[in-house]
Automatic annotation (TrEMBL):
Name used for this protein in its record: Diaminopimelate epimerase
EC number: 5.1.1.7
InterPro entries attached to this UniProt entry: DAP_epimerase_AS (IPR018510), DAP_epimerase_DapF (IPR001653)
Chain's role: Catalyzes the stereoinversion of LL-2,6-diaminopimelate (L,L-DAP) to meso-diaminopimelate (meso-DAP), a precursor of L-lysine and an essential component of the bacterial peptidoglycan.
Cytoplasm recorded as keyword: yes
Binding site for substrate: 13, 66, 76-77, 164, 197, 215-216, 225-226
Protein family per UniProt: Belongs to the diaminopimelate epimerase family.
The organism of origin for this protein: Hydrococcus rivularis NIES-593
UniProt entry keywords in alphabetical sequence: Amino-acid biosynthesis, Cytoplasm, Isomerase, Lysine biosynthesis
Catalytic activity: (2S,6S)-2,6-diaminopimelate = meso-2,6-diaminopimelate
Active-site residues from the entry: 75, 75 (proton donor), 224 (proton acceptor)
Example of a GO MF term: diaminopimelate epimerase activity
GO biological process: lysine biosynthetic process via diaminopimelate
Enzyme class (EC, first level): isomerase
Length: 281
């Protein structure tokens, strides 16, 4: 069986995009997605993203399988890539065009801005322990600067869901974090029943955050869009950051705004088409 694909990335957070417009179910299984994401035996990617037919009146639907085959609710860098992929499939890429995309995190609206830039209304962050989900604190309460023992060390963590779970901790120096050691211990900590993405944030200025991330189901990635959004929300909740921030990731910078007027989070960043090809299952 042959699968045609196009490879995109958002600041180095890279995805295999599949044209799934003609079927309501993903073209491939999570097991095949794991093989496709393998950087030696496959194409190589942090995940596989499906452009599916719209649901409940949306233009399209997005589903995503992480590199480990798990299915997250949302992907910020990925939905920017999906927006440009859809424009490619439709044969027109005009700045100002927006799409309503059904996701497991709700309807998300990316907008083409030209020059490979895409802005996204990422919706409102979910903040109660039950919504993350985490067993830290009471289910109906927020988790802000709570102490958590991970890897023999006590960390102050703030939890935010952008549809997918994020555990944010503020550190003096992100370069001193050994992600491969501490990342999996956060990801699989018993207080996160669905596992978690973990962001380590260094406040350079209240409007400029430096971030490194260990992603659920993908490991250390060069960027994480939902994680950058969650980190700005955590920065505001803890009084450490402004609502409008630049977030610097190893793969580049995202502009994030947690609007005071509608409480929604807006993200702007690039999405780059790299190559197309045929994958032989
Ligand atoms: N690994 C994430 C999904 C991808 C999120 C990230 N790549 C982004 O850009 O938001 C999770 O399991 O929740």
């Amino acid at each position: 069986m042959v699968i045609e694909f196009t490879k995109y990335h958002g600041l180095g957070n890279d995805f295999i995009l599949l044209d799934n417009r003609h079927r309501s179910e993903p073209l491939i299984s999570p097991e095949i997605a794991v093989q496709m994401c393998d950087r030696h035996f496959g194409i190589g990617a942090d995940g596989v993203i499906f452009a599916l037919p719209g649901q409940d009146g949306t233009d399209y639907a997005m589903r995503i399988f992480n590199a480990d085959g798990s299915e997250p609710e949302m992907c910020g860098n990925g939905i920017r890539c999906l927006a440009r992929f859809i424009a490619q499939l439709e044969g027109t890429e005009t700045a100002g065009k927006s799409y309503r995309i059904h996701t497991l995190a709700g309807v998300i609206t990316p907008r083409l801005e030209g020059d490979e830039q895409v802005s996204v209304d990422m919706g409102t962050p979910q903040l109660t322990a039950a919504q993350i989900p985490t067993t830290l604190g009471k289910p109906e309460e927020k988790v802000i600067e709570q102490s958590l023992e991970v890897g023999g060390k006590s960390w102050l963590v703030t939890c935010v869901s952008m549809g997918n779970p994020h555990c944010i901790t503020f550190v003096e120096n992100t370069d001193a974090i050994v992600l491969e050691t501490i990342g999996p211990q956060f990801e699989r900590h018993p207080v996160f029943p669905q596992r978690t993405n973990t962001e380590f944030i260094q406040i350079i200025r209240p409007d400029y955050l430096k971030m490194r991330v260990w992603e659920r189901g993908a490991g250390a990635t060069l960027a994480c869009g939902t994680g950058a959004c969650a980190s700005v929300v955590a920065g505001v909740l803890t009084g450490k950051s402004d609502r409008l921030c630049t977030v610097e990731l190893p793969g580049g910078c995202l502009k994030i705004h947690w609007s005071e007027t509608d409480e929604r989070v807006y993200m702007t960043g690039p999405a780059k088409r790299v190559f197309s090809g045929s994958y032989f299952i």
